[in-house]
């Protein structure tokens, strides 16, 4: 335990549920690489949480969204060998969002962009084998309307 080094990641994410499908991205980097993840990401300087999720969803999916409500915050700890860190502590703020315009598009590539594109996926096609913990928590929230409290720890995690 004394040799463990934790990278703290903070992000804001949109849960967009329409026609019995969840809007997800194909993740191109980080510990969730090659898995489905929620659209969202890190705050830019001077940006509010709602502004962040609107910008991130637009950049990663092509959709202009309306932020509906704050669902809450969840955190996840999992092993990740990155830049001398042994683990990531991912703190995620969840919002429900709805589509206000735009269309699915291939995201523009720039430093920090880790979306390889977005798609709509049925809950039954999502599992921890192909999706991030954030997606699985969103699916749980869609089923129960409960986000839960307490950290979700993964003793083992495979970056695909």
Can you lay out the helices and strands and say which pair or pack?
Layout: E1 6-15, E2 17-18, E3 21-27, E4 36-37, E5 40-41, H1 49-61, E6 63-82, E7 85-102, E8 115-121, H2 133-144, E9 152-153
Parallel strand pairs: 1-7, 6-9
Antiparallel strand pairs: 1-5, 2-3, 3-4, 3-8, 6-7
Structure description:
The protein is an alpha+beta fold. The protein has a single domain (6-101, 114-153), classed as Nucleoside Triphosphate Pyrophosphohydrolase, CATH 3.90.79. It has helices spanning 49-61, 133-144, and strands at 6-15, 17-18, 21-27, 36-37, 40-41, 63-82, 85-102, 115-121, 152-153. Strand 3 (21-27) and strand 4 (36-37) form a beta hairpin. The longest helix is centred in the middle third of the chain and has 13 residues, at 49-61. The two termini are 25 Å apart. The mean pLDDT is 95.
Gist?
The protein has 160 residues and is α+β, with helices and mostly antiparallel strands.
H/E topology pattern: EEEEEHEEEHE
Number of domains: 1
Distance between the termini: 25 Å
CATH-defined topology:
Nucleoside Triphosphate Pyrophosphohydrolase
In one word, what is the shape? globular
Helix content: 10-25%
Largest sheet: 5 strands, mixed
Low-pLDDT parts are none
Report the β-strand fraction as a percent range.
Answer: 35-45%
Structural category is alpha+beta
User: Could you tell me the radius of gyration in angstroms?
Assistant: 15 Å
Helix count equals 2
CATH superfamily: Nucleoside Triphosphate Pyrophosphohydrolase
The tally of beta strands, per DSSP, is 9
Report the CATH architecture. Answer: Alpha-Beta Complex
Strand order of the largest sheet: 5-1-7-6-9
CATH structural class: Alpha Beta
Mean pLDDT: 95
Family: Belongs to the Nudix hydrolase family.
Protein name: ADP-ribose pyrophosphatase YjhB (NUDIX family)
Domain Nudix hydrolase: 5-160
InterPro entries: Nudix_hydrolase, NUDIX_hydrolase-like_dom_sf, NUDIX_hydrolase_CS, NUDIX_hydrolase_dom
């Amino acid at each position: 335990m004394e040799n463990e080094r934790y990278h703290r990641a903070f992000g804001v994410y949109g849960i967009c549920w329409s026609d019995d499908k969840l809007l997800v991205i194909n993740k191109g980097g980080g510990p969730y690489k090659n898995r489905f993840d929620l659209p969202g990401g890190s705050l830019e300087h001077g940006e509010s949480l709602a502004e962040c999720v609107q910008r991130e969803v637009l950049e990663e999916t092509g959709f202009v969204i309306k932020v509906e409500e704050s669902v809450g915050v969840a955190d996840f700890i999992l092993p990740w060998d990155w830049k001398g860190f042994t683990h990531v502590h991912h703190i995620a703020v969840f919002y429900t969002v709805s589509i206000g315009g735009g269309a699915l598009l291939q995201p523009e590539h720039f430093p920090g962009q880790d979306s390889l594109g977005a798609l709509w996926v049925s809950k039954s096609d999502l599992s921890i084998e192909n999706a991030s913990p954030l997606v699985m928590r969103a699916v749980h929230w869609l089923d129960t309307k409960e986000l839960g409290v307490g950290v979700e720890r993964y003793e083992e995690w495979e970056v695909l």
